[in-house]
Amino acid sequence: MTGNLMRDRLIVGLDVPTVAEARKVVEELDGVVSFYKIGYQLAFAGGLDFARELAAGGAKVFLDMKLLDIDNTVAKGVENVARMGVSMLTLHAYPKAMRAAVEAAKGTGLCLLGVTVLTSMDEADMIEAGYEYDPHTLVLRRAEQALAAGMGGVVCSAGEAAAVRKIVGPELAVVTPGIRPAGSDHGDQKRVVTPRDAIRAGASHLVVARPIVASVDRRAAARAILEEMDRG
Fold it and tell me: Where is the signal peptide (predicted)?
């Protein structure tokens, strides 16, 4: 893979409290990164308008909203998100919600991603939440359901990426958060993998936030991760 192609596969999480800080991150990473994630923290601080701005300026935007509601509400939300010009949108991988979202996104360029199991959750967390499956088993089940629903891809731990890739085939996106360069702090993530190993496992896109955003030299941190991805 060339460096430019890897650049399109690295998604930097703009997990910062204000649009001003997010704008600073994007400015510092200009020319190195072209894909950004906007989640709850920034979305609720003006980040949705910033997502439109980024998309209009040619950047790719991964809107991490993890939608889950009744079918009509999900569909109407997806219709409006598609009009924003963003590239990717997440929803929880519940079959009814996914089917409604897929129908609403038809004819648009929006890639819908089913969130399988959060990378902050381990087996104990799953039991506490009332699930009968361990994380790995539930991830694979939801990957099968996402494929059946016609989704554009799934979000899973890179530790499950190889097994998920076998289920969804070569075309669907397999987006992996919980990426940590070798030797870095895991933070609140419990199922983490290095950039190189995630690419080797079959991930199409890696989501990286703190290792880049919290770095004193964000450009250098992003380049180092891209180099790790290249080695994968």
Answer: none
